[in-house]
Amino acid sequence: MGITSSRRELLVSASGAMLWGPALLNAADDGVDPAVAQVLSKTIGIDMHNHVYPAGTEPHPQRGQTRQPQEQPQGPELLLAEELKRSGLAAVCASFVLDFAQNDKPGDARDNFIRWLTAIDAQLEKGHIRRALTLKDLQAAHEHDQPTIVQTVEGSHFIEGHLDRVEEVYKRGLRHLQLLHEHDDMVSPLGDTNTTPAHLGGLTAFGAEVVKECNRLGIVVDLAHASHETVLGVLKVAKQPLIVSHTGLDSRLGSNPKMAQMMKPRLISKEHAKVVADAGGVIGVWTKMSESLKDFVGNIKAMVDAVGVDHVGIGSDTDLLSAKNGQGTNNAFPGSNVEFFRPIVAEMLFRGFTPEDIGKVGGANFCRVFGKVTAGHV
Ligand SMILES: [Zn+2]
Q1: Does 8 have pLDDT greater than 90?
Q2: Which of 4, 132, 286, 334 could make a disulfide contact with 317, Cβ separation 3.0–4.6 Å?
Q3: Taking the CB of residue 291, how many other CB atoms lie within 10 A of it?
Q4: Cβ neighbours of 99 (radius 10 Å)
Q5: Which domain holds residue 85?
Q6: Is the pTM of this model over 0.85?
């Protein structure tokens, strides 16, 4: 269905000074419910955790076995911008799972990470996609339909005891650093994770230095995969709010017992979520353990009930920007399709979230933290 200019004016005036975003134009053209289109027009859709692997950089699921180029699931001409537009999101935090790369000896993790940053640079140059360094860049992503990534990494194993490497990657565009994943930094571990028995006493002294360096430079600290003690240690030294980009509440185990057993250590307690929220942070709800869109929005609702709507976001933990999406599906949850964000907004409206609250969860909460942390830095 097309959209008339009079209808445009009506909607624009009805939404006051709000911007007339391309998301709304596309949505209306596709015959989407005007209420959904209206929310999309006002919401900067952001996925706080998404795996983005340009060809040649995807690590094998088994640690230390990098896929050969011919095994890459993505073609060399992955069009990030196109995929991002199809997802309905303005931006994703584009992450590289560093400890799943082939890191055999000190130096390898850094080399592997720099290789990924270089591959991302090439994608940015040819793919008409942008990199967010400031809040303005995220706002522009939505207002001017400029698909954008926030560069991040899952596990800071590239640091290897060299604090100056944080600034090195900052200069390459990194603005979001997930300190931990599953394996320790092989030279100087930063803190205990939530999947191995605690052996570091929470955050290490060097981990505290890394947090301070992130605060100094203007990099968002992400504590997904960190133990509760590690989070408490970070909160003692951090001068800025932090995020937990992808997780769920440990009371939401879903309907798949096998998955529940595997994922439970990666979930967080209400108490854990609350200390992050009380310090101004945001928790991204992942799509893992959701068997449907309804389940996913139920998990968002549970997190909102636990910590308040100002402290929840979406952290899908998928590879939405995969060439596989060209086949019309993605790995968010069964039935999820290339549109990803639009059905989530529709379901949230259906479940009684207000447009304002959908805006917060959909991206404004992440923007608040990103804006505060990066303010005054370029
Ligand atoms: Zn993860």
Answers
A1: no
A2: 286
A3: 14
A4: 22
A5: 45-374
A6: yes
